[in-house]
Amino acid sequence: MIFLLPLMTVPIMIFSIVLTVTSIALALFVLMHKGRGGGLSDLFGGGISSSMGGSSVAERNLDRLTIIIGVVWLAAIVALGLLYKLSA
Length: 88
What we know:
2 helices
């Protein structure tokens, strides 16, 4: 017996997977950022290190990746909201 999914559930499943993956990636990318001081990062030794005055290439690339993942995450949420609204 072949089980066919309704037409609307395939995009919902795809966007749900994208949302899950981007949520995990976004959390990891945010945690990889260097602490700027004055917050919880001081508890873990972030206040001890001296700042070099500028951001490195790796930090700027991490910033860009975090923004891109955040935009994809937001787009997946909007797409899921629209798909659920249309399927109801």
